[in-house]
Design goal:
homodimer, 333 residues, alpha/beta, ornithine cyclodeaminase, domain 1, Rossmann fold, 2 domains
Chain lengths: 333, 333
């Protein structure tokens, strides 16, 4: 059943073809540049308790000539509902018109994956061969797609606590990666986290674990650790001691990270070295020899605390809406 | 140009036929009953400054067996843009699904009009003959339609500061009221506010005036004063002395009214008598002789401070979405 709408309504089935992951990654690089220039506005998240639910709003604005404001919203109390949805409407900041909206839980994860891919491109050597992915949930899917889109990984080793679930994940992702133009990536199921992360050039940790899962001696000297799962003092998947061994410690959303109660790195030595990735990107770009500096960063060990910079959803929603409008115009000849 | 949407997207052209004003008034009476029973949830309004705009959210929930949560949102900085829109998405509070949405500025005004009509029905005698409407803006339109839908007014006298604008308003509203099934209401343009309100059974004040516009001696003993426009200490259209002469002093949204800085009635004798309309409705209903008590209230002078009870938009949005779904099912046979 489809109803007519005066503006595009993009659902999860349409999003990947309208904004393929490579485009989403490029948009997230653009987001970091805008954020560093103060043109991606991301105020603190809002929350409204309405007795039978809790509406969570992540608002933002893109302060560029096109000019949009909008937000992502979902009912926090429905996070475990299989039928739950999210919505991301986009308003024009020139005239207040609704330009379109995205609906469904994919946009948030697509964006978080693309942020991971964009960061990986800058902090990991492109000759790198092996990716480790720990976790086989919803976020792990878009992280994996983004990583192999960002860099020419030859091999991905995946660990999931539940073997049956991990096998399904591997089979589904083989198909998805092949469909997305990456048929040659070898995907293996690891028997342990240690096996998965040994010799890996990058480790994406996308679990729900409240206990640290990694030992420093398992990790390569120049590994990139991408922390998608829990990052609180009382619940975290990567131990602070391991983070502390990293030369570069970043997050995509510093203010949001610091606003968390019990944020893992608060009051730690690693926390004192925590930088916003967009700011690092800008400082490298403004240096005399940016290429040499990126190469230096790529040969070091790095860590990124993935938060989900607010406002980034709007860039992807806008691209999807514009692509939808363009395809409609084309089909009209 | 229409795009396909997985749920109904109701715009301002469709709303009046999906939820005619008589239905909207009945829904607002239901809203007052739900609110009195603690089942229409309306927390304080949220606001997010995003540099190039200000997103305003009015969140709410309907805690009934159908169960919905949602909000109305608009960019406050675009209030004067002719192209601006508003959006009211509706989520199911059972499974977090998006059930549909309304888009456009009409829903808020349709709701505020319907609240005015619902209150008028209870506080004004149905034998009443003359309505005065002061103001000819966007809110005045829905207030007028709601008033003649709620009660069999024979005559409406309208005053607008700008004669040309007021004439256009009168002509447009004659057509609109005829189309809505009220062809016999006589609509006249008054030369002064005094002329408009003399002998009126109800006065709807829907101006933007920051100066008090009314004198006590112009008003009937049993008039109902409906205050849609400014109601702040430094900017108000109805003087406190006039409000103080009223026997019944109500508002549709007491908590919201009291949360305003500089709310006109704060610290006044009239303010001490200010009651929530839903609470008055419930207390009359629970009395021994509700009919006699309503009749007593109808023969007294009354005042209502119209705020726009949060959550009420959701009841109208839900009815519109359900009507749209039902009409689609019917057309499929």
């Amino acid at each position: 059943m489809a109803y007519p709408s005066p503006f595009p309504v993009i659902d999860d089935d349409q999003l990947p073809s309208l904004v393929p992951m490579a485009d989403a990654i490029a948009l997230m690089e653009q987001a970091f540049r805008l954020h560093a220039a103060g043109k991606l506005i991301a105020p603190p998240r809002l929350q409204s308790e309405v007795k039978t639910g809790t509406l969570m709003f992540t608002c933002g604005a893109i302060d560029d000539p096109t000019g949009n404001i909008g937000f992502r919203v979902y009912d926090w109390k429905q996070l475990s509902s299989p039928d739950r949805s999210e919505m991301t409407p986009l308003f024009s900041s020139r005239d207040g018109r609704v330009e379109g909206l995205c609906v469904g839980p994919l946009l948030g994860a697509w964006r978080t994956g693309a942020i991971g891919g964009a960061i990986l491109k800058h902090v990991t050597s492109i000759e790198s061969g092996k990716l480790a992915l720990v976790g086989t949930g919803y976020q792990a899917r878009t992280q994996l797609l983004a990583a192999v889109t960002a860099l020419p990984f030859e091999e991905v080793e995946i660990y999931g606590r539940t073997i049956a679930k991990a096998s399904v994940f591997v089979n589904e992702m083989k198909t998805q990666l092949a469909d997305a133009g990456h048929p040659d990536v070898r995907i293996n199921l690891a028997n342990s986290i240690e096996q998965a992360v040994r010799d890996a050039d990058a480790v994406i940790s996308a679990t729900t674990s409240r206990q640290p899962l990694y030992r420093e001696e398992w990790l390569s000297e120049n590994v990139h650790l991408h922390n998608v799962g829990p990052k609180f003092r009382k619940a975290h998947e990567i131990p602070v001691e391991v983070i502390d061994t990293c030369d570069t410690i970043t997050t995509d959303a510093l203010a949001q990270a610091l606003s968390y109660d019990n944020f893992l790195l608060n009051g730690t030595a690693a926390g004192e070295r925590l930088r916003e990735f967009s700011e690092l990107m800008q400082s490298v770009q403004e240096s005399d020899k940016p290429k040499r500096r990126w190469n230096a960063i790529r040969t070091e060990r790095s860590y990124c605390c993935s938060i989900g910079l607010a406002g980034t959803e709007l860039l992807i929603a806008r691209a999807a809406i514009q692509a939808r409008i363009a395809s409609e115009s084309n089909s009209l000849g």
